[in-house]
Write a structure and sequence with these properties.
Elements: H1 6-53, E1 56-59, E2 62-65, H2 72-81, E3 85-89, E4 95-98, H3 100-105, H4 109-119, E5 123-128, E6 131-141, E7 147-155, H5 157-205, H6 223-272, H7 277-308, E8 317-320, H8 321-338, E9 342-347, E10 352-355, H9 357-373, E11 380-388, E12 391-398, H10 419-423, H11 432-442, E13 446-452, E14 456-464
Parallel strand pairs: 9-11
Antiparallel strand pairs: 1-2, 3-4, 3-7, 5-6, 6-7, 8-10, 11-12, 12-14, 13-14
Helix pairs in contact: 1-5, 6-7, 7-11, 8-9, 9-11
Bound molecules: adenosine-5'-diphosphate.
The site of adenosine-5'-diphosphate (ADP) has 21 residues, from helix 9 and helix 11.
Length: 468
């Protein structure tokens, strides 16, 4: 089922709450009114009965009201109080006296008497057609020694009419109130949501090409302003990511196009005139080297792309870091010797670590390769492998060309190469340290570098002994 819009939902909720409150108010008003009217009638009947008792006399078993007919107050009280009145002989149940009004109503008096005598109820109700009565019942002993049941009645139907009227009003008021509440809620919800709609519209208008645009803030500091700030932060992050992506694509195109242009140029020049077999061989051999370099570059790019996409998983195993480093030093010994760089390693005993063997090897190789590459003839490259508490340390120190303070913060960035390496050593593409940093991060370790131009550099990798 399709979700209702926020505005409709808010309207529904407001209207339902309002209707609930209305019903609650009317319901409790009804109950309070009913109770009060009931209580008033009882009180009135009680007072009338108490008053009448003083005027009631019995002669030969016949009741009679004795009062001053010339006193209008007294006469009015007795006459109005005895409008619905009847007396029974409490022993026999015979109706001894009855007011004219009750006589006219033709009440079935039997059940009246029965109930009052049996249940000793102080109040009882009776109905005769449309007329509904309430009686106050009192057993009294008269001067003739007999007991009588005195019933003083009052009309209940007026009370019922008032309650009915209240219900009728409720039946009219609730739907009208509900309709008014719905219209008002719809309007209020619309106004409250208007800034959200404006925000959505503004956000929609910001495309990939104008990510430097920002959503306007209303300056209220409320939830909507906070939402705009969050959106703006997101646009800033997107703009940065897209900028990096553009930079990456540009650098990558450059890295691939330059060697390709060179290869093509060399081949074209060769084809202009006939050359000796040796010359063709020399060109092909140099091209083969360049193809290998390009293949390595593309492989690294693919690895970094896969790493970024989260496609690469680490496979931790127990590795002796000292042994692995010694093995790699032996591997690179020939390269170092050919460059007349002295390579040495310091390690005491095994340095056990839980790590991905192959990725660890790649990281050490890259660092070692850089150290040899950026160290001129007669220099030293020294490796140190050690245990330090729960950490394992690998230090690669060289007496090479060093890195300037300007370049130092950037060397782990993708495609970054310090000026000296661009000019002198053109094999690298500035991807090695980025990959090393990624591998170290995957092992929850850190890499630090200290360097001084002309004196040398020192890369320190600290890795936790166990890969959690
Ligand atoms: P590259 O393939 O260019 O060596 P890296 O990512 O491995 O790329 O290194 C980035 C840059 O950091 C290098 O171009 C170089 O300028 C500098 N660099 C790295 N290691 C060293 C080092 N041991 N000595 C001096 N400079 C270094």
């Amino acid at each position: 089922m399709r979700q209702l819009g926020l505005r409709t939902r808010l309207t529904l909720i407001f209207s339902l709450v309002f209707a609930g409150i209305l019903v609650l108010i009317i319901g409790s008003s009804y109950r309070i009114l009913k109770f009060r009217l009931d209580e008033n009638l009882r009180q009135e009947l009680r007072e009338r009965a108490a008053g009448l008792r003083g005027y009631l006399r019995f002669e030969d078993g016949k009741p009679r009201f004795e009062y001053d007919v010339n006193d209008p107050d007294e006469a009015f009280f007795v006459e109005s109080s005895t409008r619905y009145y009847q007396i029974f002989n409490a022993a026999t149940g015979d109706l001894v006296d009855q007011s004219h009004e009750l006589d006219l109503l033709d009440l079935d008096t039997g059940p009246q008497f029965e109930r009052a005598i049996k249940t000793h109820e102080i109040f009882s109700d009776a109905e005769a057609g449309a007329v509904r009565l309430r009686f106050y019942n009192e057993i009294m002993r008269a001067s003739d020694g007999k007991s009588y049941l005195l019933q003083i009645g009052g009309r209940r139907d007026f009370m019922d009419a008032a309650l009915k009227q209240l219900l009728l009003i409720a039946i009219f008021v609730v739907p009208v109130g509900l309709a008014v509440a719905a219209v008002a809620s719809w309007w209020v919800a619309g106004r409250a949501l208007q800034p959200v709609n404006l925000l959505a519209q503004a956000a929609k208008e910001i495309g990939i090409s104008d990510l430097d645009r920002r959503l306007p803030l209303r300056g209220t500091g409320d939830e909507l302003d906070r939402l705009s700030v969050t959106f703006n932060d997101m646009f800033a992050r997107l703009a940065k990511a897209i900028g990096e992506m553009k930079q990456f694509t540009a650098s990558m195109s450059h890295e691939l196009r330059t060697p390709l242009t060179t290869l093509r140029g060399e081949a074209e020049v060769m084809l202009l005139q006939p050359h000796s077999i040796q010359e063709y061989r020399r060109l092909l051999a140099s091209h083969l080297e360049e193809y290998d370099r390009l293949a390595r570059l593309i492989n690294r790019l693919l690895t970094l792309a896969r790493a970024e996409a989260g496609d690469i998983k680490m496979h931790p195993e127990s590795v002796d870091l000292a042994q692995l480093t010694r093995y790699l030093v032996e591997e690179l010994e020939t390269v170092a010797t050919s460059k007349q760089v002295a390579l040495s390693i310091e390690s005491k005993g095994p340095v056990n670590i839980e790590a991905d063997h192959d990725w660890l090897e790649t990281a050490i190789l890259n660092l070692l390769d850089n150290a040899i590459k950026y160290t001129p003839e007669g220099g030293h490259v020294t490796l140190l492998v050690a245990n330090r508490g729960s950490e394992r340390i690998l230090e690669i120190r060289d007496t090479g060309i060093g890195i300037s303070a300007d370049a130092l913060p950037h060397i782990f960035e993708r495609f970054y190469r310090a000026d000296h390496s661009r000019n002198g050593h053109n094999e690298g593409a500035g991807l090695g340290l980025n990959l090393v940093q990624w591998i170290v991060e995957q092992h929850h370790g850190r890499i630090e570098v200290k360097s001084e131009p002309g004196k040398g550099s020192c890369f320190t990798v600290s890795l936790p002994a166990a890969l959690a």
